[in-house]
């Protein structure tokens, strides 16, 4: 796409040149009322009434009231509205917290209130097209100004005075502003639709992976000499939720297959960059869920003195280590299994499971990933803000075991198919990242006049 015929320096950091007929001004000069934020106090919550939102309700540039904090009364909303009342066509801007700089265009009629992390920007209809102003606020050049003007406490924050004094570049013609806004609405919607399709495909692939694991590790399909098919001979497992299993499979309590112990009684202060690698519950929940290889994976270390004093917490290849706490129910049962030969300790907030009998460790890793196993753990844990996964809970879960050879065959089949799924997912994630970068670049190029879209034809439905 071509640019404009001639340019001039904008004098704005991060923007560079703008078309010769464009202007620059501060944000406060393009709004019809002073930029205001929501109340700083905690409201009195009610069971119903007016939805009350904060930063998390901004979802991909729009407001989603499903993410409201709660409800407030009509009376309290009326009081708060004297300072900050949202209208359709407003721009909501996150001015504090981890999402500082995010924004959304209000395109809904429903009444709602906002909390203090959000500010209302209302474009002056005589000076700025609201959608154009929103597009500029979304651009990386505006976000650059936000980042160079925010302050840090525990999280970033940009004050109202700093926000209203940020620079906007714009064409004087309202018709041109509207054309730019319509063009960007059309093009970014195309990009968002592509991203949504790829995200849906990723979701379907993840569901395919989960179904594959659940199907093979519970014996719903078995090896028939050529491939996997429904078993011809089955027996009652004796467990309602498991149902029929292949005739040659066994059902056991986990304590009959593994011996259990605890990780090191240490804190973060005991960790350093040298010594013996140590996996703690944090790494299990984040980096190294499912498997860890101390020969390849980066882990903090403990002093080598623990090799003499705490051998019971030392792991070897094929051992499992579970996180003994989780902040959400989905994380209950998270684990890692050791795939390398090097020494590694289980650290704080961990439960160790070491095989008592010969097993295929990867097969059991897939069992511990499966929904039937996770459901057992989740139904047994207790907690409100933090859930505790005890040795007793793990010991008394039920597992099902084919022969060692079938364990190997199942784990190798899942690993192969899982690898193909992962490759497809990784490819789509990369494509999504490229689309997001293209979208960011497109918005910034168009709202600063680096490309000329005045004569671009936009389909009528947009």
From TrEMBL:
It comes from the Bacteria. One of its GO terms (molecular function) is DNA binding. The keyword Coiled coil applies. Gene3D superfamilies: Bipartite methylase S protein, DNA methylase specificity domains. Residues 188-215 form a coiled coil. Pfam families: Methylase_S. Belongs to the type-I restriction system S methylase family. This is Restriction endonuclease subunit S. It comes from Luteibaculum oceani.
């Amino acid at each position: 796409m071509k640019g404009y015929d001639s340019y001039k320096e904008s004098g704005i950091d991060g923007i560079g040149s703008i078309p010769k007929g464009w202007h620059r001004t501060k944000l406060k000069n393009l709004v019809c009322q002073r930029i205001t934020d929501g109340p700083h106090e905690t409201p009195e919550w009610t069971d119903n009434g007016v939805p009350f939102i904060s930063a998390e309700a901004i979802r991909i540039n729009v407001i989603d009231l499903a993410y409201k904090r709660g409800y407030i009364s009509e009376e309290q909303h009326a009081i708060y509205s004297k300072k900050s009342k949202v209208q359709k066509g407003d721009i909501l801007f996150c001015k504090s917290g981890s999402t500082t700089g995010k924004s959304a265009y209000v395109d809904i009629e429903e009444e709602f209130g906002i909390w203090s992390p959000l500010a209302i920007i209302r474009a002056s209809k005589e000076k700025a097209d609201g959608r154009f102003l929103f597009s500029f606020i979304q651009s990386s050049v505006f976000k650059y100004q936000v980042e160079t003007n925010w302050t840090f406490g525990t999280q970033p924050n940009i004050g109202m005075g700093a926000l209203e004094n940020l620079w906007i570049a714009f064409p004087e013609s309202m018709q041109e502003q509207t054309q730019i806004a319509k063009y960007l609405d059309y093009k970014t919607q195309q990009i968002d639709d592509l991203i949504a399709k790829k995200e849906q495909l990723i979701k379907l692939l993840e569901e395919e992976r989960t179904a594959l694991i659940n199907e093979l590790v519970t014996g719903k399909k078995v090896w028939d000499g050529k491939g996997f098919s429904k078993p011809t001979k089955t027996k009652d497992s004796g467990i309602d939720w498991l149902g029929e299993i292949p005739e040659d499979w066994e059902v056991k309590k986990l304590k009959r297959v593994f011996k259990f112990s605890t990780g090191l009684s240490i804190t973060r202060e005991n960790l350093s960059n040298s010594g013996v690698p140590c996996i703690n519950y944090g790494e299990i929940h984040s980096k190294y869920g499912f498997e860890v290889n101390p020969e390849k994976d980066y882990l903090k270390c403990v002093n080598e003195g623990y090799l003499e004093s705490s051998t019971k917490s030392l792991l070897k290849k094929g051992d499992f280590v579970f996180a003994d706490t989780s902040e959400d129910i989905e994380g209950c049962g998270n684990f890692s299994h050791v795939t390398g030969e090097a020494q590694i300790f289980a650290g704080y907030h961990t439960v160790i499971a070491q095989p008592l009998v010969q097993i295929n460790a990867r097969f059991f890793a897939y069992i511990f990933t499966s929904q039937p196993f996770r459901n057992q753990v989740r139904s047994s844990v207790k907690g409100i803000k933090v859930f505790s996964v005890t040795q007793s809970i793990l010991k008394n879960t039920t597992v099902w075991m084919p022969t060692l050879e079938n364990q190997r065959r199942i784990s190798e089949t899942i690993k192969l198919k899982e690898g193909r799924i992962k490759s497809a997912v990784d490819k789509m994630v990369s494509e999504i990242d490229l689309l997001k970068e293209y979208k960011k670049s497109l918005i910034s190029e168009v709202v600063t006049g680096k490309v000329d879209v005045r004569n671009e034809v936009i389909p009528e439905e947009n």
